[in-house]
Amino acid sequence: MDFTKLLEKLKADIYLIVSDLLIIIIVFAIARFFISQISKFTSRAIEKSKELEDKEQAKSIVTSMTMLRSVIRYVIYFIAIAIILYKLGFGNVMSNLLVTAGIGSLAISFGAQSVIQDVVTGLFLIFERQYAVGDLVKIGEHLGIVTSIAMRVTYLDCKGTKVIIPNGKISEVINYTNTHSMFELTIPVSYKENIREAIDFIKDILNKYYNENKELFIEEPVVFGATNFNVNAVDIYMRGKVVNMKHWQIERELRVIIKEEMDKKGLYIPFTQIVVHNEK
C-alpha cells in the first residue's frame, strides 16, 4: 500500500517537473519570438529610412532602432527570468523581478559596475546625439564608421575590421560627420622661384578645379598666400568649405593636378637631399 502511494507521488512529481519544464521552454520560446519580431520591425524601419531624402533624419531613425532593439532584448530576458524563477517555486513574479534586480545590485558590488556604466553612458550618447549610426568618428585610437549603438557597446567598422568599444570606456569622441567639411592644402615652393608668380599660378589651378567641381564646394576656396618659411621651401596655403566628407577627395585630386601643372611649367618642388662626401 505504501509502495502504491509512493508511485503515485512520484508520478505526480514527474508530472509537475515535466509541466514546469514545458512552461520554461515555452517562456523562452515566447521570449525569442518577441525578440525576433522586434528585430524584424527595427530592420524594416532601418530599410525604409534609406529611402528618406533627409539623411540626418534617416541616421537618427537607424540609431534609435538599434538602441531600441538592444533595450527590448534586455527587458524581455529580464521578465522571462523572473517568470522562470516563479515556476521553479521562488515566490511570485513581482517579487522575482525585485529579486532579479537585487541580484543585479549584488553583482554590481562584486565588480559589475562597468556594465552599469556602459549602459548609462550608452543612453547619454543617444540622448545627447554625440554620434549616430553611419557617422565617421574617432574614439580613442580607433577611427571608423559607426555601424550600431547598443546599450553596452558601440560597434565601429575600421577599414573592414569590426571594433567593439564598451560605452563606459568612451571619454572623448571626434565626430567627422557634420554639415560640412574643410579642405586644407599646403604646397611647398622652392626659394628660387618667383613667389608672386607661384601664388598666382596656384590660384589659377584652384579656380579652374572649383569651376569644374562646384558640386563639391559650399563656398569658393581661397589661396591665402605664403604662410610659412620652411628649411628649403616657402609654403603656399589654401583652404575651403566643402560638402561633408569630400575634403579628402579634393585634397587628393588637387595634389595630383598641382604636381602635374608645376612639372609642365617647370616649377620646382623642393625635397630634402643628403650629400655624402667620401674623403680618402
Describe the protein's architecture and organization.
A hairpin with a 3-residue loop joins β2 (142-149) and β3 (153-158). The relative contact order is 0.08. Strands 4-3-2-1-5 form a five-stranded antiparallel β-sheet. It has a three-stranded antiparallel β-sheet with strand order 6-8-7, with helices on one face. It has 280 residues and is α+β, with helices and mostly antiparallel strands. The protein contains five helices and eight strands. α1 runs antiparallel to α2 (55-87), α2 runs antiparallel to α3 (93-127) and α4 (195-212) packs across α5. It has three domains: 2-127, Helix Hairpins (Orthogonal Bundle), CATH 1.10.287.1260; 136-175, Roll (SH3 type barrels); 180-265, Alpha-Beta Plaits, CATH 3.30.70.
What is the name of the CATH architecture of the largest domain? Orthogonal Bundle
Helix count from the secondary structure assignment = 5
How many runs of DSSP E, i.e. beta strands? 8
Query: Mean pLDDT, nearest integer?
Result: 80
Overall geometric form: elongated
Set out the fold topology.
Layout: H1 2-49, H2 55-87, H3 93-127, E1 136-139, E2 142-149, E3 153-158, E4 161-166, E5 173-175, E6 180-189, H4 195-212, E7 222-229, E8 234-243, H5 247-265
Antiparallel strand pairs: 1-2, 1-5, 2-3, 3-4, 6-8, 7-8
Helix pairs in contact: 1-2, 2-3, 4-5
